[in-house]
Structure formats: C-alpha cells, structure tokens
C-alpha cells in the first residue's frame, strides 16, 4: 500500500491558490467506478516533497504581531499569542484557522491552543483518532427530521435572496420578465450567439424555438416537420436548421477566432448565474453547494483526434466507465437546497478536475478573492457537498485552503482509515458488513483543519463512508429519525398543539366505526387520561424497534421472568409476588425451591451453612483460583462433599443453574445435556476438589466440564482484553483449540493479576443479572424471520383490522357478554406512567361507556365517562400444532362447553364467534384455553401497562374471521404482583442501561450473552448493542435530546450527516436528470455541437428554476412546510417539460414578424377543445372527439375519493414502462386480423380462447397484426371499460392505453366518432378497443384547417400480447 506523505511546505504549496494549476493528484480504487482522465498533462501520484521550508518566509512575528510566552497555565506548553489587531492578517498569512485560537482574558490577546501539533499535509490511514461505540467518550444525541429543516432554512434564505436580487436588477417577477432577461434583445446570451454566429436575432430565436420544441417532445425536429398533424411553418425547417448547426460546429476551429463558441456560451451562462444567485454583499445563511459532473456522451474515434488536433475543440476526452461511452465532462456547481444552477465548466485539455473546480470557485466568488491575502477566508460559511469518486486529495485541500467546508460520501481510499469488503485492507480498520447498525468515527487534521470521517453500517449488509470538515471530536454523535410521511413533520414540530391533541395522534380509528360528536369528545378525553405516555404513533417502524429494546415489553418480560426465576432469592420480599405471577403463567417449576418441585428443602441445610445452589458453586470456584490457601481448600472440600451428597435430590432448575455457575453455556445446559449428564459433570467437578491433596496441584477440570464453545466464551469473558492484545499468561497467546483454551484458563486461575477485580470481569458472579439481561437482550433484538414466518406475520397484521371490526360489530349486536363497545382505537407503543422501563404495544384499545356501577367505584369523579380495556389479536394459520388453526378449533370447542347452553346453541347454530368471560384466578381454565405461556404473560402485560383490569384475546382464522374471544379479568393482587416483579428485575440488571454513565454498562456480560446465542452472534457485535442502548436512552423522557411524544412513523434511522447528505445530493442530480429526460436529438453531431446543445439545456434549467421561484403563489412557512412538499409543490405546478414548452413559445413569438406580432403576446399553434364526457342517458348520441389525447391533464377527480382512502391516478411520467408502451402503440401499423385455429379434419374455425387485452371481454377473435394484441373491433365496450377503470385494473389500463389516462370518473371515450366531411356530409365510425389502442391512426383532424397536436412519439420495438406469447 502506498502512503501519502507531505511536508509542511508541500501542504502549504498545495493549499496556495496559484499552486494547483500545474498539479494533478489522483487516487483510484479497483472496486469503484470513476472517470478516467485522458489529459495531455502527466499526473503525479503520491507526491513526496522534501522539507525545504524557508524559516524566514514563515516567521511573521515582526510583521504580524505574534509574541511567544509561557503563560500556559502550568502545563509547560508555550502559548503563541497574536495581537488583537493583527488576528485577521495573521490568519491570512499563516493560513491558520480561527477555530484554533482562544482568548486569554488576562493578556487580552488571542493565542493558539497549547499542545496543538500542526499536521504536515494529510494523515495516513493510521494517523486518525478512531472512536468506537464501546469507547467511554462516545456520546449520542437524537433528532427528528433535522436535516430537512436545515435544508428548508437554506431554501428559504436562497429564495428570499433571489427575490431581492430580481428587485435590485429591475427584473419583473413574471414569466415574460425572466425570459426577457435571459433571452431578450439585451441579454448577454442572445448577443453572444448573434455576434459569434453573425446571425439575425430573429433567426437565433427561431433556431432556439425549434430546438426547445423538439427537446420538449424528445424527437428529432425533422420528424416534427414531417408530421401531418403539426403546423410547423413558423419553426425553422430542417435545411436551415442543419446549416445553423454546421455554423455552430465550425466557430473557433479555423483559428481565426480566439475562443470556441461553447466557451462563449459557457461564459454567458455562468455570468447570468452569478448575477442572479451569487451577488456581492454576502449571505445571511450557509450556502450549500453540490459539486457534480454532467457527462456528455459523444462516441468519437481515436483516428479523428489524431488527424485533426482541433477535433475536440479544446475539450478533454473522457471515457465514462459506467456507461461505457466516450465523451466530455462538464463539472457543475448547483445549490443543494433550491437546485439553482451556480456554475458550469467543461473539462479542458490539459486540465484536471481539481484545476477545473479551482477556476469555478474563483469565478463564482470572484468578489471574495479581490482582497489581497484573503484567500484563506474566501469560502467561509460555504459548504461543498459531493459524492464518492469526486473527492480527491487535491480538491479537499483546495476547498479547505480557501476556508470552505467539505461534506459528502467517500470511496475506499488509502488515506481513509476505514474500509470494507476489500482483499488488501492494509492498515485500515475493516468494518464487517454482516453485523448490526452502527457508526465508527475517525478524526484527523488536514493541515489546520479537523476532518471527521465516518463509516456507517446499515445493519442490512451495507457500509457507507463519509466525511465532514465541520465535525467536532468532543461533540456527541447525532442520529436522525426520518419521518415516513411528510405530513407528520408538520404537526410534530408545531408548537400550537395541546398536550391532548398531541397524545391523540398515537390512536387511529378502525374503518367503519361512527361515533357522535359528544361520544367522540368523551373518547378523546378518556384516551388523554390513560395512565400511559404514548411513545410512537405506529408499530413496526424504526422508532418502535428502537424503543422496545432494553425495556420490559410483553415478550422480553416473559423471557426475563422465566430465566431469572431460578435465581430469585428465597428470602427476598418479592418472593410471594414472583410465585403468584409464575403460578398464573404455569411457570412455577422454574423456581429453585418451589413446593411442587423442590426436594432438598431447608431441613437438609444445617444452621449457619449456605444453601446448596449456584451461589455456593460460584463461591467454591472463586476460592480455588489464585490466592487459595490450605484453609480455603478445607472449606471448599466441605462444600463439595455436601454437594456430592445432595446431587440426587437436586431439582432440575437447581442443577442447571449450578452447571451454569461452572461455566457451561445456558443454551447447552437447557437443550443439549440430559439430567444424567448434568449430574455426572457436577460430580466430576466436586470430586476434583475432594480428592485434591495440595493447594499447589489443584487444576480446574476444564476439559471434562466445558466443551470448545464453553471454553471460548469463558476465555473471552474473563480475559477478553488480554486475548485481543496477545497478553495471555502461559505459552499460548492466542489459543484456538479446546485443550489450548483449557490450558490458558488454568494459567489465568493461577495468575494474581487476573484474579484481581474478578467480579467485574466475570459475569457469573451475579447469575440473576445474567439471567435478566439475557432475556431482555435476546427478545429486544428481533431475530430475522424465515420466508414462511414472514408470510404468516404479514397475514396476521392484515387480518387485525378485520378481527377488531368484527369484535366491535359483535359487541353492538349483544354477542359479547358484558361488553358494549362504542369505539376501538389502534395504538402505538405506550410507556407506563410511573415506570418508564415498562412499555407495551397492544393491538387496540376498546372503549365502553361507564356503567353506574363503574362510576360509583371511582375514588373521585374525574369527568371521565368512558372505560377501556386492551385487545390482543392472534391469527392461527401455522402448520405446527402449537398455535395452529387445528388447535384453535379444538379450543373453540372447549369455549363452547364453558358457555351457557342457550348461548352455546345460538352461537353454534349461526356459526359465529364465541365469547367467554374468565378470571385470572381460574388457573386450570386459563391453562386449558390459553396453552401458550407467553400469551398469558402478554395479555397480563397489556392490562398492567394501561392500568386496566381486563384484556380481550381474539383468536381468528386466516380468512379474517374471529373464531373465539376470551375476555380475561385480572385480580388486583396479580397486577400488583406483576409490577413488583418487574421492578425487582429492573433493579437487578436492567437499571444499568438507564444510567447516564456509559461506564456502567456491563460490556462483558453483553459479550457473554452474544457468544451464548447463535442467532445474536451472527447478527450483532457488542458495539452494536452498545450503540442501540445509547440511542434508546436518548429517546426516554428527560434525556438531553428533549424528544416530543408520540413519535410519528419513521422509515429511516441514520447518522445526521447521512440524512443531511440524502437531502443535499439532489440538487446536482436533478439538473442531470432534467437534461437526460428531455435529451435533444441533433442533426449534426460534433464535439462542439453536443456541448453547445447541453449548455442550451442548462440555460433551460436556469429558466425553469427561475420561473418556478417567481410563479409560486404560496409563501414558504418554515413552521408548517417541509422541504419535500415545497419541492413537490414547485414540480407539480411547473414540470420541466412545460418550461421547455413555454421557452419554445417565447422564442417563437420573438422570431415572428413584428408587423404581425400582437403586442408581444405569445401565439400558440395548438388549440385544444374539452374532451367529451360520458353520460349513460346519452350513450347513443354522437360526439366530437378531442384529438389531443396525450394533452395536458383535465384535473379529473381521483377515482375512489370520498369514503375511505382514495386511489389517485398514477402519473404516467413516473412509470418507467410508459415510454416503451407509448412508442409501441404509436408506431404500430398493423391491421385487424381474425384469429383461427385448425380443426381435426383440417379445416379452421375462429379461435375463441382469448379475451380482450383492454376490456377483458372473453371469446374475442380479432387481433392486431402489428403489435399482436387481442382487441375488440366493432363492439361498444364503454360500460366494461368504465368498470375496469374504477376497479383494480384502472392503473394498468391508464399505463398501457394512454387514451384512457386523462378521463374523469364514470367516463369513457365515445363509441361513435366523427371522422370526416365529404360533400357536406359527416361520416362516423365506431371506436372500439382496437381503435383506442391505436388512437394515433384515428385522431387526425376532421378539417384540414384544424391545427391540433397529436401524439408524436419516437419509434419503439414491437411488444407481443401477453396471452399470445405464452
């Protein structure tokens, strides 16, 4: 690997503005795609410059007012003071940044920070300070949509600045005013073209009108001229157009003119951009500039360049790797917020990209470079954003040397300290892509600037590198949640919502439920009074997935209670509560001394002796390690003899916990070892102590007790840091085999340094904490589902609204005993009001009116007239017996047996859902009807979290119908006991994750949990769980991030820098997309014509952005608007192709004869009439047809608008297949043909096996011989088409048949259509499916005087019918 090294002189030389003209520093990566520069200047890779620094040149103490002193506060470092009046000059001359200076109030002077080491050039990959998530200095903050708010503020500032500039320049804020400024008689663009081409201005306008008209439709102008439906006489004919382009191609090539035409057009464009967007006076906001390149494809040959040295017209030839095309490159600078074009510069021969960008920067901000010596501060408060391959060392140093900031994503480079998926990483830190979501940080100085480099791992197999020169190594890392719906951002950041209004955002009504205004008011009040804090608005999003970690949810609480049961102290005050909860869930067997399973009771333990359990084993194991004496050996022998005598009487739970204390992994104890094997291993360990004769000779029998995986886990747990540093005691520093690991563990047992603070390193010293955190971590991080599991989970979520709607209807019909629901609400994640570590995601909240008895039971009247209970839905569709549909039907029969005979007969006879009220005290009935223990804890958790005493468990089938419902009423004692158990578990492990000190997190214990679980080990590292804990902590109430609740649905959780990049990169990308979506087809293709054509399109982009800004009617409001809806509003109001049409008509009006010009009013050649509307009562009448089938939208009401969710029409332009389908229909020249099939006797008969591709009518025997589609020919199919348009096939029809794309609801094209006039007699034809699919052949004008635009589409390939191609 090559290392880039530079001395101070070399770095200063690279930063100096004038020094980059002759340099070209590039790096490349073999895995990345990057343009290859074919320049005539030799590139210098990895420059190594000797230290030839001239001390006199850099000694500015006399001229700038620098003084040296030792007032360093006693730290021994000498401070470099700068006189207050000489700070500016010193910064300019020494190129030292103001960020590196501090103020000394005693001396009243600025000084540079003591101990600051200036970096010579750029650091190598090992020259960065890397911060990992497990480091103590890692801090985290959480924000919501902050990046979008930042860009919105920039958008507002740039838009206001543009309006002020237009007023100062006297430009009218109208479409005509903008066009006149850019393309009028006094514009620099028109004067440049007219002067260089020596053409009349009207000829130039006529040329531009033709060019933009052809670009609007994306077809050659020759085809427009030849089309019979287009009146082309006012445009430039093909012969004159070709001559015009040939003149453009020759300007500057003969050597008689100093510059090429493309250079003049470029200067004109950049001059207009600078006048409009980069005026003198400075900005009150940070300008974000997106740097990119616009690739112009031109497939030239090498022989052409050899024969004609001026063939490329001074342009640098490029090979575009991704497209595998030759061409030229235009470097661009565009506003990242508004998309305003700022500067464009084509790559010249002999110039590198860094030199090109340097010229662009000096041109854009020319007024900032006019002050001598101010270059080091010229680009202050300007942030330059770019993507991956564009960031070269020279470009970064250039921008930083001018005082600017760099920001964006990175490629894998040798100087970047991180890499991934690379065979030869060198000294760089390799980020594994297979693990969870995380970020790794590195800070290094580039000369006087601190550069922050990040490696973000998405958790889905991807890693992205990025950098930011405004980062601070002491500042916390910001993570950003990005909202899924832009409408949520409005109310979330609003300060006008009340607490009740904000809390109600977390509840959504079920479709079909209607309540009165009075009821709705009472319901809203009740929901607000619920004793919970609503954390999220929905479940299954990023905020929900983050908040459920490290908390007691319905699943993690069950796991923690079950795993911690064997370790619950018998004499603890929470013991009765634990027993009550476990008895309800039928988990009592997990208690180590439960009455029904414990044989070795208190009678077997003498007074003063420790009980025989895991704690005794742990004490014996620790006493026999380093520091053991003969006295400890005697005590250990006594304990081991007691264990040997009691082995046969130990319960399974006690036996398991004792083996875990010996170091055997919990999953192996539970799943792999039999009872006999457990006893055998415990006996072997105890005998190894009883048979020991000397303290010095004792060795723990690791090889007999532990397997290879157990010894690996224990070795990592007890000596993970030493193992990583290769500092293990003994001969083997990095043991990989089981026997070597056992030998290393025995050396550790005898090493006093490892025995010190063993309790802090060994998680087995607290088995209760180990059990609690194991249950929390394993259930908090969801394991990936298999394909079948995903299908079943998706089915369950789809059926939940159906189950809830049926539950509501059944309660209204009196089928649910004792329940009369007035509303059901879906809810997000809730948090217990008093215990913030208890969270729950119930499927729904069912709300009822309070009865008189309920009101009398209230301790005090709180004006709450409603009462509610939680609802849990289960879909039974699995194949296994446990949780299957067959088991549910078996339980349904038991439910029917428990019901009253009359109710049972009624339910069974109607085949409806059965509902039964049961109590949590009915243990046998609960166990029979809810066999799944986790589901029992789940419904109990719902009731406890929401502070209610009732939960309904709805069990349904895969079709969406409820089979039965169990209304479980919980005893108050059980709810209290459940809360006490959760508090006990919180204090014995989970509380570590709620401490503000990151050092309290049990990293060794988390590492042990991961190593013990195969699923977690494959997906997560300790650092991933650590980062998740830090993020989750910031989402809690009272955190430093000050989160508002509830949190709307979020579709992304990324570091703030990446979220900011996602909304910044669109500026330059959009400009390229505009030019490529409306790509002009040139009749004369030379290097100069293709570049000039691209600059003409960039001028159109400038025009488009300006008229978008001046035609907006709604003023931007940062309190209610978002950057997404502001941009979408502008694009919906005026898309780019419409701007091209406006621009074409503007030039057409300027090209018209002044004698026939109507006062400057733009004349259009295209008149359109309203399309016919269908009325069933007039179905037999005759209508005239609108021939502009592909004209602009009529603004029709979206289908389905009204009750329920409307299905808006799809935008045709947003569908990738639209253009191909459009081309196929237009270019088809086939005729109607009958389809036949052969019979057995050799004859033929009509083939009726097909249905129409449009109306879906069956037994159609006609097809098109060209496009091979089966279509009706002479039948009125309007009614069928209307039904399809209003159904599920509506979107498909609008995409495949453009003639149906702009119709109102309940509308279809008329069948009887006028096709011509002969001898004053009108002729009509019937337009069936075949005609609608070939509308270009039947939309010609009725009279030759009509001038209407028909569909004009480029040629495409034939696509056969899906039916006939099978």
Quick overview of this protein structure:
With 1366 residues, this protein is α+β, with helices and mostly antiparallel strands.
Oligomer description: single chain
Give the count of helical stretches: 50
How helical, in percent, are the residues? 25-40%
Radius of gyration: 39 Å
Q: How would a textbook summarize the main sheet? A: 11 strands, mixed
Roughly what is the average pLDDT, rounded to an integer?
A: 77
User: Low-confidence segments, ≥5 residues, pLDDT <50?
Assistant: 1-77, 87-99, 115-119, 594-605, 756-764, 1155-1175, 1178-1217, 1339-1366
Number of strands: 36
Q: Class by helix and strand content?
A: alpha+beta
Terminal residue distance: 56 Å
Strand percentage lies at 5-15%
Principal-axes shape call: globular
Describe what you observe in this structure.
By secondary structure, this protein is of the alpha+beta class. The protein is built from 50 helices and 36 strands. Strands 1, 6, 8, 9, 10, 11, 12, 13, 16, 17 and 18 form an eleven-stranded mixed sheet that branches. It has a seven-stranded mixed sheet with strand order 20-22-25-26-28-29-27. Mean pLDDT is 77; it is low at 1-77, 87-99, 115-119, 594-605, 756-764, 1155-1175, 1178-1217 and 1339-1366.
